[in-house]
Design a protein that fits this description.
Distance between the termini: 121 Å
CATH architecture of the largest domain: Clam
CATH class of the largest domain: Mainly Beta
Organism: Ramazzottius varieornatus (Water bear)
Keywords: Membrane, Signal, Transmembrane, Transmembrane helix
Largest sheet: 12 strands, antiparallel
Number of domains: 3
Strand content: 35-45%
Number of helices: 8
Signal peptide: 1-23
Transmembrane segments: 645-668
Biased composition (Low complexity): 614-625
Length: 680
């Protein structure tokens, strides 16, 4: 047994005995006499008095020393212990020889978890008979049969008084008791020291009798023979309680620490929430070792197969983002899974050689993309919201409640094992008491990447903010800057709605609904339908729809195998027109939170080079207002040519030179005196 584990078991044994001495008082009549025939077990001057009980919730800190009374070196360790009766859980943390070891005790499931580094090993509490920490957790959990199961026998308790007893210059009360371990046939003399009443605790409060444990000592009255593992005669364990508090400041001490995955953790079975089909959120991504920070704004629309990113790095569609320290600019990327294309637009167009947009095929390296194989081809499609950030992986385990950015959150953990590294991911979902509706809110993500040798490679922290599920404005996915460089065609048609006033009041929603409905009807991406305008018809429930059909780009970079072939603008227009040439067309349009039937009136479709877009769109009040001004028209002005300007410059130089000579001559003629004199 290594020394660190010895330290863990020792502190657990101490705490177990603190509970055992009170739990088994009524059973001493059945104890055989021979284990307690030692003089130390029967002090003549002692009186019978129970050892004080600890609180039902407490925190302790211990400095321990173990002397095995042989040639082995004395072991020193620092320990912390935590217990909560209501949650039926406990924890022990030991620091020894620069190594931190943790034991977590789950009284409900009857399991213990041994954690060292980022490794978590499950153990049964009573596996292979019983061990010292099983005594601790079983008694704190209220299991009265711990003595028989662990084969411990307790002798009578003797109170030795409070006269002339001090520990670390602290006046104390003293108890003594013998404990027989039936597994090793060793009897231990246990001594307990508690602070006397009247002692001033930190903060000025007065300590009551039995409220603060000060020291525990355990000495072996007999021992194992030489050559066997175990305590020798006279071996001594001393534990000084340096801190005691009848409460717990941070209850996360009962849970696996950050970056540690316990696959068999079964405190509570809780299903992790799922992301909705439409949402928007902002992510602050921090790579702690690389000292890199990235910001991403994600807009996700599974229904319309559109995703947009606004990021301060060109790799903003990756998660976690590729670490970069370059001078960042703001990039906007739109993924259109209707066509399989990605449109990337920087704020500063000069960064891309003056081009406003880069068009490429979507790759499966993006956080929203998933690759599948169909026949001999690799196809990229949009992930469902439930599979973003690895939420659809198997093996997610509910850990419990922890704080993330000072907010209470439910935590789920998962681990992926690779050939050279492993990644532990933790998802933090805000507690429902802090949400304004029934929607679950994702608060953050932690990712711990470690190498196979256990060393940390990187830690990624993602802080989520501005999470909501409100309907999107169309400008969220607008890529007109990428598509308007080609040919565009204006079309118009008349529709009949059941409530014209509602259409006017919810104009933006109706425009988006019409765009999505028409694009679905003619099987194209909604990005090709732009500049939608709703004009007045011949009645309140009649509206004239104007929109522009954009041509599809040809300058696509990357593998076009993942892109869906799009029809030309002329083919799309012909398809739409043919659907209501001779009869009305009923179309389901979703707007204002509802799906309603809109009738496209037959014979109303118009297009052609002579078609002019009106300048007076309908306002929410039903009146008209001038359309916003378009882009400034180029102006042509007459002026001098380059040759004329050069000739004029030469002429001005000659004229200036002649004028200078004339002025100099005139000044010389005015000087009638002697220019200089010579003196002898």
């Amino acid at each position: 047994m290594d020394t660190t584990r010895c330290g863990i078991l020792s502190i657990s044994w101490v705490l177990g005995l603190l509970c055992l001495i009170n739990a088994e008082q009524g059973r001493l009549t059945d104890v055989p006499a021979w284990p307690f025939n030692y003089t130390e077990c029967n002090p003549t001057s002692a009186t019978k008095d129970e050892v004080p009980k600890l609180s039902t919730k407490f925190t302790i800190k211990i400095e321990g020393k173990t002397d095995n009374a042989d040639s082995a070196p004395i072991m020193l360790f620092d320990s912390e212990g935590f217990y909560e009766e209501d949650g039926q859980r406990g924890a022990t943390i030991v620091h020894q020889h620069g190594v931190k070891s943790i034991f977590l005790y789950d009284f409900i499931s009857g399991r213990a978890y041994d954690i060292e580094g980022h490794k978590c090993q499950k153990e049964e509490l009573y596996e292979k008979g019983c061990n010292a920490y099983a005594v601790f957790i079983a008694e704190l959990a209220g299991h009265s049969n711990v003595t028989s199961r662990c084969n411990y026998t307790l002798g009578p308790v003797a109170y030795l008084g409070d006269t002339n007893f001090t520990v670390r210059n602290i006046p104390v009360r003293k108890w003594q008791q013998c404990v027989f371990d039936g597994r090793t046939n060793i009897t231990f003399l246990s001594t307990y020291y508690y602070a006397k009443s009247g002692i001033q605790a930190p903060g000025g409060t007065e300590v009551k009798d039995g409220e603060n444990p000060i020291r525990f000592e355990s000495r072996a009255l007999n021992g194992v023979p030489q050559g066997q593992s175990g305590p020798r005669v006279g071996s001594m364990n001393t534990y000084d309680f340096t801190y005691y508090q009848p409460s717990i400041d941070d209850e996360s001490v009962f849970l696996p620490p950050e970056g540690t995955f316990c696959p068999d953790w079964m405190r509570e079975n809780k299903t992790m929430p799922q992301m909705p089909d439409q949402f928007t959120l902002s992510m602050l991504n921090i790579a702690q070792n690389a000292k890199s920070v990235n910001n991403i704004r994600l807009n996700f629309d599974y229904r319309n197969q559109l995703v947009s990113f606004i990021a301060d790095t060109v790799n903003g569609t990756h998660f976690p983002p590729v670490a970069t320290r370059q001078n960042r600019t703001l990039y906007r990327t739109v993924h259109d899974y209707n066509s399989g294309l990605a449109f990337t637009m920087p704020v500063d167009v000069w960064l891309m050689g003056g081009r406003k947009c880069a068009i490429s095929a979507i790759t499966n390296s993006s956080l929203d993309a998933a690759g599948t194989t169909e026949g001999n081809n690799s196809v990229v499609h949009l992930r469902h919201a439930a599979s973003l950030f690895g939420l659809n992986r198997t093996g997610w385990v509910y850990v419990g409640m922890k704080n993330f950015t000072n907010m209470p959150c439910y935590v789920w953990a998962n681990q992926r094992n690779g050939t050279t590294q492993q990644t532990v991911t933790e998802m933090y979902w805000l507690h429902e008491d802090w949400t304004t509706n029934v929607t679950s809110v994702l608060m953050g993500i932690m990712q711990y990447v470690t190498r196979t040798d256990g060393t940390t490679k990187e830690v990624y922290q993602t802080i989520v903010s501005d999470y909501n599920t409100f309907p999107f404005q169309w400008r969220t996915f607008d890529v007109d800057a990428c598509l308007k460089n080609g040919t565009s065609t204006l079309i118009t048609f008349n529709v009949k709605v059941d409530n014209g006033t509602e259409v006017i009041q919810r104009m933006s929603s109706f425009e988006t609904g019409m765009r999505n409905a028409i694009s679905t009807l003619i099987d194209t991406t909604p990005l090709r339908l732009t500049d939608i305008l709703i004009a007045k018809g011949d009645s309140n429930n009649s509206k004239q729809i104007w929109m522009t059909v954009l041509e599809w780009p040809q300058n696509i970079t990357g593998s076009v195998a993942n892109a869906t072939i799009q029809r030309t603008g002329a083919q799309l227009i012909q398809d739409l027109q043919s659907r209501f040439v001779n009869q009305d067309l009923k179309l389901n349009v979703s707007y204002a939170g509802k799906t309603k039937v809109v009738t496209l009136n037959h014979g109303s479709f118009q297009t052609g080079p002579d078609l002019v877009r009106p300048t007076t769109p309908v306002t929410p009040t039903g009146s008209t207002t001038p359309a916003p001004p378009g882009p400034p028209q180029p102006q042509i002005e007459e002026g001098y040519s380059g040759g004329s300007m050069a000739g004029l410059a030469i002429a001005m130089i000659i004229i200036g030179g002649v004028a200078g000579l004339v002025a100099g001559f005139l000044l010389w003629k005015r000087n009638t005196g002697i220019a200089y004199q010579i003196y002898d």
